[in-house]
C-alpha cells in the first residue's frame, strides 16, 4: 500500500498517497483545478497549461497534472498568482477561438465557458485577427469536427491511439496552422467514436445525433444502465421533458457514459449510445383484449381473466433478456411449472470485442441463470404450438417475428388457446395475441440488471410511463395475486 503523506493545499492540510498527482488529490477533497488536456484514463501530456498552481519554493508556477504529492508540499491553486497564470493560459486558448457560443452545441457544458466565467481575463489584450480553420467537418457518422473551436488538448487523438487503437485523428501542420484532422484515408467510424465527444472539453467535437436538438440546460439526468448488451455499462440518461417540441418529440435526448471502474471505466460503445431511438416508437399504453373483438380492460379485469387462463396449465413463457432481476424473480414465481424460452438464443448473438461490447445483445440473461431457470428451444416450442400442446402462450419479447418469420409466428400464436403479449412496444406479431398488456420501458422504472460477470447494477426511473403501463414484475405479481385470490395457487 502506498505511503500516506501530508501536504498543504490552499493553506489546508491534506493527507494523500505519496506520488498521487496534485490535480487528483485536490479533486479527492472537492477542489477542482481547471484543466483541459489531463484525463485520468488518457494521461497528462501537460500541453494546455490550465492547471498551473503555485508551489512554495518553485521559481515558476507548476502544472498540477504533473506535480506529485510529497510530504510537506505547499500548493496554492487559488492564490492571485495561480489565478493570473490560469487566466493567461485561458487567454492563449481563446486567441483564435471563434467565440461562437450562441450557436455552439457545447454551450452550457463547455470547459472554455466555465473557466472563463470563473477565472477569465475579461479585458482581452489580443488585437490581431483570428486564424480561420475548417468548420462542420463530418469526421464520421456520429461526430462533427469544428477545427476553430479546438484547443489542441489532444484528448481525442490519444483516445483513438491508446483506447481504440484506430488512429483516425491526429494533430497536423505547424504553428498557428496546427489542427486536429482526420488521418488521410480514414473516417472516425470506430465502434466507440462517440466517446471523443464526451472527452472533448470544448465544442470542437459534437454529436451529430444530438446537435441542435435541445439545449443542454433543459435536460434532466438520471443514473441508469445500458441495456444494449450483457456488459451493463453505467450510463446517464438525459431526458427532455421541459421542451417537448424540441428533439423531434423524443423524450430521451442522449445517453452518456457514467464512470464505473468495475464495469465500463469512462466509456461506452456507439451501439449502446445510439440504441435508444425506438424507445418511444409504437408504444403500448392501454390494457386490451384484442379477440374476439378489441376492448379496453381494467388491470384488475385483465389480471383476473389471464389468471383464469393460467389455471388450465400447459403454459409456455417466452422471456427476453431485457427483464430486470425483479421481473425475472416475479416471473419465476408466477410461471412455476411452465416451460421457459429465453431470447436471444445462442445462435442470435452479435459481435463482441476486447474493450466492452459483449455478444449477448441484452442486459440480463444472467439473472435467469442465477435463479436456476433454463430455456427450451424455439424449434421445440414451435412443434408444441403446432401440435396444440400449449394452451397459454405468454410472451414478453418483441422478436418472435424475427425468430420464426412474421407470418409463421402469427400462425403459431393463433394455435395457443390463449396468447398474452406484454411489453413497452408493439411489434409485427403483437396483434395476433388475445391480450396485450402495456409494460414500462427500462427508463420508466427502477430496477437492477446482473451483468455477464454477475455484477449487479441499479438503474433509476427517468420518465413517467406511457398510459397505464406498469413494470413487468408488477404485472406478474398482480396476476399471481388474482390466482391466489381464487385459492388455486400459481400456474402449473
Ligand atoms: S478536438 Fe477537442 S479533444 Fe480533440 S484536441 Fe481539439 S479540443 Fe482536444
Ligand atoms: S458495451 Fe454493451 S452495455 Fe456497454 S454501451 Fe455498449 S451495448 Fe451498452
Ligand atoms: S491539465 Fe495540466 S497541463 Fe493540461
What does this structure look like?
Among the domains are: 4-94, Ubiquitin-like (UB roll) (Roll), CATH 3.10.20; 288-485, 3-Layer(aba) Sandwich (Rossmann fold), CATH 3.40.50. The chain has 492 residues and is α+β, with helices and mostly antiparallel strands. The strands form 6 sheets. The protein has a 7-stranded mixed beta sheet, sandwiched between helices. It has 13 helices and 22 strands. The model has no long low-confidence stretch (mean pLDDT 93). It has helices spanning 22-28, 80-94, 111-119, 155-163, 195-199, 270-273, 299-310, 325-334, 366-370, 378-386, 400-404, 406-415, 472-485; strands at residues 4-9, 12-17, 52-55, 62-63, 74-76, 137-138, 143-145, 169-172, 179-182, 205-207, 220-225, 234-239, 252-257, 288-289, 295-296, 315-320, 339-343, 392-396, 418-423, 435-438, 447-450, 456-459. α7 (299-310) packs across α13. The protein is elongated. The longest helix has 15 residues, at 80-94. A hairpin with a 5-residue loop joins β21 (447-450) and β22. Bound molecules: iron/sulfur cluster (2 copies) and FE2/S2 (inorganic) cluster. One iron/sulfur cluster is lined by residues 150-156, 180, 199-200, 202, 204-205.
Strand ordering within the main sheet: 15-14-20-19-18-16-17
Per CATH, what is the topology of one domain? Rossmann fold
Work out the helix count: 13
Mean pLDDT comes to: 93
Q: What is the number of E strands?
A: 22
Strand content: 15-25%
- What ligands can be seen in this structure? iron/sulfur cluster, FE2/S2 (inorganic) cluster
The CATH level-2 architecture of one domain is identified as 3-Layer(aba) Sandwich
Q: In whole angstroms, how far apart are the ends? A: 56 Å
Oligomer: single chain
Instruction: Report Rg.
Output: 28 Å
Coarse shape? elongated
Low-confidence stretches: none
Decide which structural class fits the backbone.
Answer: alpha+beta
Helix content: 10-25%
Tell me, what is the CATH class of one domain? Alpha Beta
Amino acid at each position: 500500500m502506498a505511503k500516506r503523506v501530508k501536504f498543504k493545499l490552499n493553506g489546508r492540510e491534506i493527507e494523500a498517497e505519496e506520488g498521487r498527482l496534485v490535480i487528483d488529490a485536490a479533486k479527492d477533497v472537492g477542489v477542482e483545478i481547471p484543466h483541459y488536456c489531463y484525463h485520468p484514463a488518457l494521461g497528462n501530456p501537460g500541453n494546455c497549461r490550465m492547471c498551473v498552481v503555485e508551489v512554495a519554493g518553485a521559481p515558476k508556477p507548476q502544472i498540477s497534472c504533473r506535480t506529485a504529492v510529497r510530504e510537506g508540499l505547499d500548493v496554492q491553486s487559488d492564490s492571485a498568482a495561480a489565478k493570473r497564470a490560469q487566466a493567461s493560459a485561458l487567454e492563449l486558448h481563446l486567441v483564435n477561438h471563434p467565440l461562437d457560443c450562441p450557436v455552439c452545441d457545447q454551450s452550457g457544458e463547455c470547459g472554455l465557458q466555465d473557466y472563463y466565467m470563473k477565472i477569465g481575463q475579461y479585458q482581452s489584450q489580443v488585437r490581431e485577427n483570428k486564424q480561420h480553420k475548417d468548420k462542420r467537418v463530418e469526421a464520421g457518422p456520429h461526430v462533427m469536427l469544428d477545427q476553430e473551436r479546438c484547443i489542441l488538448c489532444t484528448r481525442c487523438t490519444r483516445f483513438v491511439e491508446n483506447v481504440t487503437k484506430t488512429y483516425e485523428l491526429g494533430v497536423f501542420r505547424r504553428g498557428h496552422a496546427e489542427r486536429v484532422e482526420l488521418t488521410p484515408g480514414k473516417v472516425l467510424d470506430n465502434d466507440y467514436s462517440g466517446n471523443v465527444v464526451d472527452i472533448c472539453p470544448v465544442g470542437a467535437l459534437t454529436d451529430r445525433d444530438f446537435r441542435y436538438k435541445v439545449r443542454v440546460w433543459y435536460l434532466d439526468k438520471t443514473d441508469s444502465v445500458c441495456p444494449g448488451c450483457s456488459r451493463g455499462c453505467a450510463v446517464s440518461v438525459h431526458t427532455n421533458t421541459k421542451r417537448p417540441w424540441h428533439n423531434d418529440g423524443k423524450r430521451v435526448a442522449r445517453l452518456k457514459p457514467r464512470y464505473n471502474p468495475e464495469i465500463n471505466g469512462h466509456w461506452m460503445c456507439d451501439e449502446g449510445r445510439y440504441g435508444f431511438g425506438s424507445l418511444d416508437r409504437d408504444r403500448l399504453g392501454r390494457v386490451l383484449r384484442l379477440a374476439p373483438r378489441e376492448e379496453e380492460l381494467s388491470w384488475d379485469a385483465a389480471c383476473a381473466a389471464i389468471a383464469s387462463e393460467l389455471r388450465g396449465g400447459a403454459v409456455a413463457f417466452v422471456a427476453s433478456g431485457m427483464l430486470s432481476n425483479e421481473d425475472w424473480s416475479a416471473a419465476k414465481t408466477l410461471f412455476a411449472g411452465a416451460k421457459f424460452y429465453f431470447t436471444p438464443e445462442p445462435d442470435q448473438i452479435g459481435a463482441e470485442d476486447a474493450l466492452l461490447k459483449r455478444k449477448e445483445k441484452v442486459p440480463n440473461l444472467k439473472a435467469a441463470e442465477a435463479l436456476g431457470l433454463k430455456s427450451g428451444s424455439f424449434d421445440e416450442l414451435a412443434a408444441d404450438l403446432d401440435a396444440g400442446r400449449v394452451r397459454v402462450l405468454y410472451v414478453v419479447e418483441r422478436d418472435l417475428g424475427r425468430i420464426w418469420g412474421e407470418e409463421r409466428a402469427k400462425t403459431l400464436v393463433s394455435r395457443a388457446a390463449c396468447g398474452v403479449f406484454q411489453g413497452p412496444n408493439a411489434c409485427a406479431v403483437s396483434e395476433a395475441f388475445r391480450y396485450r398488456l402495456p409494460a414500462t420501458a427500462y427508463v420508466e422504472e427502477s430496477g437492477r440488471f446482473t451483468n455477464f460477470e454477475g455484477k449487479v447494477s441499479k438503474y433509476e426511473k427517468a420518465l413517467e410511463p406511457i398510459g397505464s403501463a406498469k413494470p413487468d414484475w408488477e404485472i406478474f405479481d398482480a396476476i399471481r395475486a388474482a390466482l391466489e385470490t381464487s385459492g388455486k395457487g400459481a400456474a402449473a
